Amino acid sequence: MGLLQLLGAALVVVLVSGLAVAGITVQQLEANIDTVALDGDEGGVPAIGDFEGGFNVLIVGIDENYDRESVLNDVNILVHVSADHTNATAVSFPRDLVVPIPSCPREDGEGRYASMSARPLNEAYYYGGLPCVALTIEELTGLDIPFAAMTTFNGVVNMSTAVGGVTVCTTGPLIDRYSGINLPSAGDWTLLGQDALAFLRSRHGVGDGSDLGRISSQQVFLSALVRKVTAEGVLDDPAAIYRLATAATQSMTLSTSMTNITTLVAMAQVFRNMSLDRITFVQYPSTTGVGGVYEGKVAPVRSVAEELMERLQNDQPVVAEETGRGSVSNPEATTPPTNPETPTEPEASATPSAPGETAAPEEPEVIEGLLGQSAAQNTCSKVNN
Questions:
Q1: Is residue 179 part of a domain?
Q2: Residue 151 resides in a domain
Q3: Does an H or E element contain 255, and which?
Q4: Could you report the per-residue pLDDT of 113-147, keeping only the tens digit for each?
Q5: Residue ranges in 17-144 assigned as alpha helix (H)
């Protein structure tokens, strides 16, 4: 979510204001983008200003660790935007979640790979690239995914540097020799470059040391990133805008349905007036400690997952019950303002509306058992010590 909004919002400003920073054109930014076709992708959506309705876009982060024989999809985030553009939900799927992997098209276009019944989600990219990850998430969620974007971990390094760093909070010293993060005390830390990457990759240092703890710690970073872009004037600085757009496009592969800058602009515009408390990051309902095919891996919690998917299919806002294994509310934080361009919603009233009046919107119900947070919530990574 943070990645899509960051890229799209930067490009919105570049195009709409007609800026040409340092003589570089939008066409040159487009030239940075690699593309791949999803299964059944016919390409193209309406240009800027014409995007209507909701959409789903999958953001995948791959780990190009050359000590391994395969490239894995270690980060998998499905962003759902409601048809009325009032809310968005980013669902993070654990890399070790055991799922069916459907039959996926071969990269050379010659036939398809066989389906598999129970494999870790992060093997989907190895079996069939970005189209296979999208098909796997489609089958798991029942949601259509016409758009997908992939970035390497270098993309995180470049983009965190382009925005001047992202400030995160920790509950204690966060030291993880596996990821390389070394934050020697509790408090706020502004991370960029390799430090930002090490923070996002830390599993042993946060929560219970599991991938589920890492997901909620990553949401600390993503929510802080969204707040920075929307509240700290990043989009008012032409040089920062161009650094951001360049860093993003140089590190991404997009589905052919997102082949040009105007497509991204049309999609990103829906976030510009969205209230921070209606941008939600959640973990796909799942747990550890289950035997059988889930031994040593992650199993879905189907009842909670079904309620989450029903909420998304009906374009309803999502509210999590608590933050998760790897994060806690920041006791030092003040509640950030909602987007200043977003009209303030009237307070709910027990008195029915008179004929012709608009009823106050009801507050969405919490989904019991769902873990996550809104972009408005200021949280800290819960250190594992």
A1: no
A2: yes
A3: strand 252-255
A4: 899 999 999 999 988 999 999 999 999 999 999 98
A5: 26-31, 124-141
